[in-house]
Amino acid sequence: MRFAVKTGAATKQRTACAILPVYSDGELPASTRAYDRACGGIISELFKAGDLRGETGETLLVVAGSGAPVRRLLLAGCGKRADFSRRSYRKATRAALATLARSGQPSAISYLTLEPVADADPYRRARLLAETWHEVSYRFTALKSKQPEHVPAVSSLAAAADGRSRRSMISGLGHGEAIGRGVNFARELGNLPANVCTPSYLADRARELGRRHRRLTVKVMSEAQMRKLKMGALLSVTAGTTEPARFIIMEYSNAPRSKRPVVLVGKGITFDTGGISLKPPPQMDEMKYDMCGAASVFGAVQAAAELELPINLVGIVPACENLPSGTATRPGDIVTSMSGQTVEILNTDAEGRLILCDALTYAQRYKPAALIDIATLTGACVIALGRPRSGLLANSDALAEALLKAGEDADDRAWRLPLDPEYGEQLKSNFADMANVGGREAGTITAASFLSRFAGKSDWAHLDIAGTAWLQGARKGGTGRPVPLLVEYLLAS
Ligand code: BES
Ligand code: MN
Ligand code: ZN
Fold first, then answer.
1. pLDDT tens digits for 325-362?
2. What spacing in Å lies between the alpha carbon of 133 and ligand 2's midpoint?
3. 223: three-class secondary structure by DSSP
4. Is 72 marked active-site?
5. Topology adopted by domain 2-137
6. Is the alpha carbon torsion for 71, 168, 399, 359 positive or negative?
7. What's the predicted TM-score (pTM) here?
8. Closest Cα to residue 267, out of 397, 405, 462, 37?
9. Which residues line ligand 1 (CB under 6 A)?
10. How far is CA 114 from CA 14, 86, 109, 201, in A?
11. In the chain, where are the structural domains located?
């Protein structure tokens, strides 16, 4: 897909399809009016006849007629003019682009980008156009033997701009494209089943990323190397499977060496059966998504590299399976983590924190400016916050505020939960430094409390994405969250 910004007279663009805003009240916007005139008043006529009402998200694709400057008009309802917000802009754009994707039209220009939106400047409007295109055009085809019908045929998409907004729209399209691609990369990795998306597969995808970007260096550690580093907690999780674990390190350097990096750590459990503390069968297939934290790190690192952000960034992914077998870790086993702290594993299904704790200890060698882990960590987070927001817990108010703001700006929201020391008392063990579970109460917080003990002196934050990383039901699939939040944070840092 080629994205472009176009200025100049509305009806003088060479494109197949014009995406035109229509409100449910008031007059036609200027660009829509210009096309209406050039097409013999067809738009006003549709409006008068009631074929078009202008409700937010409504779309109508019509043949523009002979002598018209384009082949198709795609009319996009935007609701009441006074209520046009970033939310309704996104909704209208999403509906229009979904119609475009199914239309077979090869190119289009959106005039929605010209409409004023109170909480979305031209940069944001262009960025949302590109992001939304990636959102609606994504199809999971990797494992279908026949290509589905309705493969989007669009090869170029333009944002209409005026002279003053041209530059910021160019920047917005660039950012939106990198974010959209990063989101879809994360969605694809999430959607791939565990028999394809293994730790070694993730390692290969990381190496491929490293080959594509000069400033990105990728290292992959084997279990032997993890043993040398004494990653006893991580190794206890992979003990039950024959699939080899991998520890993936992606170093992106595009700032002076003296600048401390942001370090992202993603949970990479490629399948979580629960281990000996076996999960019940219903919906266990969804545990292929237990590597979505890792996937979001891949997506964010790719976006940073594509945008050549002037930062230092490290992505760390501990990757393995959690399976039961004769060699699996048993409830009651005590392991020594890389930090030297010992852990009594009372529930082998609380495995995410065990791989993350060693990754957080490993991350200390980078002296991170900010250390952020992303994990599908607790079912309790889905109960607490549902699907709209990720859980956020942090030992630094400044980092928490920055991430919450990034989530708001990117429409990829999080909500902070507390981390008082009292919660940590639930992790007391009679036999080791701590247990890996703290009972039913406040499960998201005790999990974060466990992780906080491995964050050293770093400014650290934890995103629990158990409720946000994938959708269920008819739209079942990876969401790519929280790639938008992470990239927004990196753009601002
Ligand atoms: N990967 C799961 C968390 C999860 C469950 C995410 C369902 C999304 C949907 C994690 O490894 C896990 O099993 N957590 C346990 C922790 C418990 C044993 C303390 C949980 O949430 O039940
Ligand atoms: Mn588990
Ligand atoms: Zn898990």
1. 999 999 999 999 999 999 999 999 999 999 999 999 99
2. 34
3. helix
4. no
5. Leucine Aminopeptidase, subunit E; domain 1 (3.40.220)
6. positive
7. 0.98
8. 462
9. 272, 290, 347, 349-352, 376-380, 382, 437, 443, 466
10. 18, 13, 11, 43
11. 2-137, 181-492
